[in-house]
Specification:
Largest interface: A-B, 48 and 48 residues
CATH class of the largest domain in chain A: Alpha Beta
Strand order of the largest sheet of chain A: 3-2-1-4-5
Structural class of chain A: alpha/beta
Strand content of chain A: 15-25%
Distance between the termini of chain A: 18 Å
Mean pLDDT of chain A: 95
Largest sheet of chain A: 5 strands, mixed
Low-confidence stretches of chain A: none
Number of helices of chain A: 10
Oligomer: homodimer
Chain lengths: ~290, ~290
Amino acid sequence: MECGGTKFVCATGDETGRLFERKEFPATTPVETIGRALEFFGGLAHPLEAIGIGSFGPVDLDPASPKFGYITSTPKDGWRDTDLMGAVRRATGRPVAFDTDVNAAALGEARWGAAQGLDTFLYLTIGTGVGGGGMANSRLMHGLVHPEMGHIRVPHDWGADGFAGGCPFHGDCLEGLVAGPAIEARWGQRGETLPPEHAAWDLEAHYIALGLATWICTLSPRRIILGGGVMRQAHLFPRIRKEALALLNGYIQAPEILERMEEYIVAPALGGDAGVLGAIALAVGEGG
Amino acid sequence: MECGGTKFVCATGDETGRLFERKEFPATTPVETIGRALEFFGGLAHPLEAIGIGSFGPVDLDPASPKFGYITSTPKDGWRDTDLMGAVRRATGRPVAFDTDVNAAALGEARWGAAQGLDTFLYLTIGTGVGGGGMANSRLMHGLVHPEMGHIRVPHDWGADGFAGGCPFHGDCLEGLVAGPAIEARWGQRGETLPPEHAAWDLEAHYIALGLATWICTLSPRRIILGGGVMRQAHLFPRIRKEALALLNGYIQAPEILERMEEYIVAPALGGDAGVLGAIALAVGEGG
């Protein structure tokens, strides 16, 4: 199951990436939303071997922690300290694998999509928020907590952009500058309603490319996959590639960047199914 | 051997981290400098089993590449496309392990220093330049090329700092703002000569903390080790910790950050020997 801050997607599938049943519903209260997920799992035609959860966060991924499997310090109303994994495990009696929604989507892309065979890559989603995950040394990125890539700081172009930024924690971190709500707050209308030639998009591409340049210098990913609602504006891709190339300015001497940018910064091959397929990949097992 | 852009350190040691012979010399031309290293290896009292090289970069770490083991696109005069690993291997007939200088130092700290037992951590050196390495998922960070962390972009505080930045590729990337030459260019005197109460250091701590906040959100390291000439100003540590905490603003809910910052952002336990001990650790083998 893909547990986003806006909607949940429950689905069943197998280790080849085929999907069988599938159901979507909005993320309202924990009781109602988790209840609808459990209802889905209770009414399946197929027997269920294991469940994978890719969840919005922050989440607790430390198996030694008393809050392992919880959604922790989220600003989303009512969801703070929610034992999501425990609720699913107790109700279904099945083994449950748990990770961030972006790491799940990254694993889906690694198994069946645009990141097959890559030991180090990035998966970013730019929508209601900005999230990042991926693999380093052929395993999903974890650590002290887990990546919270949307909250990196980038140079704010005050000359072109007087919007102060919309992140309640950091103001003008990357998420505060480029997520859907920031676009709407800055321009007074939703991104979907802004035409491709609107100044919003050059600014958007500039800030996203600043983030990518920083991550390229930090992680040296072999590919960067950009998903999420904002990236449905396909015209952003060539702008972001061009801007990232200009920002790196020839410093990283790799033909993947210098000559093949259109294969280096790409859309998810699994499209909107990356998240739920990734959750199924989690259930199958990271090594499987 | 630790091959820095300023000096080389050659040493012999064993798998317990003991050092025997040791010799330092300035990095002049490749012919002269590599020649002095080979002279060192030719005149040893102990038999030599393997050699580890931690080198300034960028370097080519791809075993499948024709330039594997080369220093590649460095701006350092005369060193572009230098087959450092090949020269050492041919002259000594020993197996040679090769990585960046910062990854070598990171491995030294993981084996014998401040990063023992940590699956994910960062090692940064702030001196003539800014370099970063470390481990993700218990292995040194590689990828398309290797991390070039000094070149991330951070918000430039134009109100407090009119210096345009000193990086020949990116101007005011992190290295362009905080490396030793940037301090000297901004204030007209070398950092060592500036007293702790000078405004230079609050600005320095601010920029470094911006970098750390970005890396904490990206990699979620379990610890950050800060070495290099600039960090010999020990008064920087408490300033950087305080500023990083303020920048993160409670978003990352981990007691290591919220309560134990003085154990989270630390100096190298191996001091100035991290690099050369790390090269010996490379020779012993990453898994050894």
